Amino acid sequence: MARKKGSGKTVGMTQISISLPQNLVEQIDKMAEIDNRNRSNFIANTLQNLAKDFMSVAESKKKLASK
């Protein structure tokens, strides 16, 4: 992705801060390593997939409810 000059941030991305239990961070790091990703990329990719799946299920429920 393109980067803004001098900002160090990727264009179109928002940085957030969250607190997680240490054991969860360790699990995330292990999964990220297995998937050959850094922690941030692994979390972003996982959340993107979760959101896509969630919206797909929500849309299916909505269609079923309208029948």
What does this structure look like?
The chain is mostly helical and 67 residues long. The protein has a domain at 22-65. It has helices at 22-34, 39-65. Helix 1 (22-34) packs across helix 2 (39-65). It is extended. The termini are far apart.
Order of helices and strands: HH
What radius of gyration results from the CA coordinates?
17 Å
Tell me, briefly, the overall form: extended
How far is the N terminus from the C terminus? Answer: 43 Å
Key features?
single chain, 67 residues, mainly alpha, 2 helices, 60% helix
Summarize the structure.
With 67 residues, the protein is mainly α.
Topology, element by element:
Blueprint: H1 22-34, H2 39-65
